[in-house]
Amino acid sequence: MDDAGEDSASPMLYTCPHCGGEVEAAAGAGEVIGCPHCASEFELPATEGETATPEHERMQSQREAELDGARIQQVARSRRAAIRARSYCLIALLACVVTAIQLLITAALHLRGGRYVRGAMYFATAAALAVAGWHFLQKMGELGKEAAAHPLPDPKTPPDFTALSDGSQHVRNLEQMK
Fold this sequence. Notes:
With 178 residues, the protein is mainly alpha-helical. It is built from four helices and four strands; from the N terminus they run αββββααα.
């Protein structure tokens, strides 16, 4: 088992990103090795003075593109969830307001009829609903800001639109088909 490749590269210690266990490997950057502790596979990072292979760079850019797509989906889901939660808060706020108004009317009727204890209980319940309504109103504001926030950072480089056409090529293709 004394290959020339193993003699030239001394084994190094790496940390498994899944379980945190130490893994000794003589492989280079971008190579995938298996963890003996948790049996998961992970890619070795580039060490100082070592450059990644073109294949590694291609795989890395492909992984970043997949992560970008997953991040966009996550942002869309969180935005939809914030809008949905804001709608639920609006419904709860309206229910609190309507119920509080009904309780205030009932409390006034009980107080006019001389039933002070029951009227006071209705009034206290209406006050509690007003506090709950205020809470839902504040929560709606927070969720509105969350839904309107721009979660993705601005790109470091401007997008390249040179590959896009103005449609004139499609017209030429149709003319050639005739």
